[in-house]
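Section handout, structural biology tutorial.
Before the tutorial, make sure you can parse a SMILES string by hand: atoms, branches in parentheses, ring closures as digits. In the record below the ligand is zinc ion, and the chain has 440 residues. In the tutorial you will relate the predicted structure tokens back to the input. Do not try to memorize them.
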Amino acid sequence: MASVAPKARKHLSADALFRLVHTGFDHIPDDRPAEVDIALPDVLMSAFAMFSLTAPSLLAFAKERAEGNVHTIYGIQRVPCDTYMREILDPVSPKWLRPVFTNVFRHLQRGTALESLTFLDGHYLLALDGTESFSSKTIHCASCLHRVHRNGSITYTHQLWGAALIHPDQRAVIPLMPEPMMHCDGMDKHDCERNAAKRFIAKLRQDHPHLKCIVTEDALRSNAPHLETLHDYGCHYLLGVKAGDHAYLFQQVQAAEHAGRVTSSERHDRAAGLVHRFRFLNDVSLNASHAGVRVNCIEYWEMGQDKVQPCSWITDLRVTKRHVFHLMRGGRARWKIDNETFNTLKNQGDHFEHTYGHGEQHLSVVFAMLMMLAFLVDQAQQLCCAWCRAVWLKLGSKRLLWERMRALFYTYALTSMRQLFEALLYGFKRSSPLVPMDSS
Ligand SMILES: [Zn+2]
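Predicted structure of the complex:
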């Protein structure tokens, strides 16, 4: 039986998104003297291509790059050597990458690529969390955070406030530009995270004033000042709470239970052998010191044969029996920011400093941002490129997909990513003969 070619949405293809990224790089100011060997967009695009192909190291990319293909597929005129790439990218301020993320995001929005991620009444679930992208006792740069230990030794780290649109039914996530945490944020981690979160929300609203979102975060962020920030910037929330940290809230729910004012519900999932039990109360004070900050509280127990797993959230969305199950699934999908988003940084970054380099000013942060940008394009394809999905399905794993992609990329002359996907799906010779037939 002849196989049917996947239907592609051209403007959302890898080729179209690569062009969009390249155009974004064209607008980044280059502070070098006028006469330069390799243009800044080429250097940025080379680093992007390296992460997009998940090359194991900068040197590996520099050695293996196929000049013809980086030109036709990534639009790069000249690829820098590894040392030159580090040198040129080190002084580039990461802030210039923000419009590139925003452009890609808006393009996906316009192309209705994000529709499958809408969670509730046209709102997206936006998961936020902090993560450490680098830690060392010896290597450091001007933008490293310093953790001073009791014995006087210092650990240098880079931490990011990351964000991604997630959906409980979708494996793909759509990351937004992370907010780097700065040395001047404060001495402790919470201070850094609080300030980075504030900056992130303010910039989110600048870039996407009308984006309807429900922010989901862990219990550390369930405090009155943060809820006020979210409210001020027009974001709904669905945040974790813990009995240990939010005793006042849980006492009120308990008291309301005795007074018969809470709502309980249950849902049986016989196939999975689970019972989902809920107890919720709308319009309750978050804590004694902020009695005016009113929230809606959901308590949930996943009851299996041998164990019970409790979870709780607060939200500004009115909780009803009709959608409490859906909200629970949204709250539990928060793990995707760790597993799907940050692990990309961590997996590729295991030996990040040795393989890519750290720099003296911004290099480490610029690399982390470009890696996240490549991940955004990868996830957009996973979400809406029929070719990418068909090849992934055929090969069975993303790792194998990348391996095969790299093998073809480094070996054959290609004209587009579309051709590369076709070759992976149907075999190279069939889709693109090496010796063109003379049809005259
Ligand atoms: Zn550093």
